Amino acid sequence: MPSGSAGRGGGLRLPSAADASLTLLSGAAVPTALVALGASLHRTAPAEPAEPAGLAVICALKLVAQPVTAYAAGLVLHLSAPQLLAVVVCAGLPTAQNAFIFAQEYGVGEVVANRTVVVTTTLSLGTLTTAAALLG
């Protein structure tokens, strides 16, 4: 019996061929999402522009308001310094590619989701560094 990822969660044992296939597919999920995001950035025709003010609000909420809220909640819950840092950093991570994948799947807000992923990923380098320095 394989001891792969499927076998570790609650005693489920899969045949080795199925386990190897699922392991291969799970390893391809993030690169596939990144390729889809990158492909959407490269368009021959200009895409509809994302409203700058709306994009700024979304990014500020994600990169500033969400970590500040997590920090306040951590203080209320009396988290230790390492726990508080972990909570704030997790709250301040950039918008995941999943947002873009869902927007693309449902044909709603693709441009905004695309731009939000790109902008929050870029800006999170600074916001996460700042959070780590303040809470370090």
Explain what this protein looks like in three dimensions.
There is one protein chain. α2 crosses α5. The protein is flat. The protein is built from six helices and no strands. The mean pLDDT is 83. The chain is an all-alpha fold and 136 residues long. The chain is 75% helix and 0% strand. It folds into two domains: 42 residues, no CATH class; 89 residues, no CATH class.
Précis, in short:
With 136 residues, the protein is mainly alpha-helical. It is built from 6 helices and no strands.
The average pLDDT score comes to 83
Content of β-strand: under 5%
Order of helices and strands: HHHHHH
Calculate Rg over CA atoms. Answer: 19 Å
Q: Mind summarizing the main beta sheet?
A: none
| Class by alpha and beta content | mainly alpha
Low-confidence parts lasting 5 or more residues at pLDDT below 50? none
**Secondary structure: helix percent:** over 70%
Query: What distance lies between the first and last C-alpha atoms, to the nearest angstrom?
Result: 44 Å
Number of domains: 2
| Number of H- or I-type helical stretches | 6
Task: Tell me, briefly, the overall form.
Answer: flat
Strand tally, please? 0
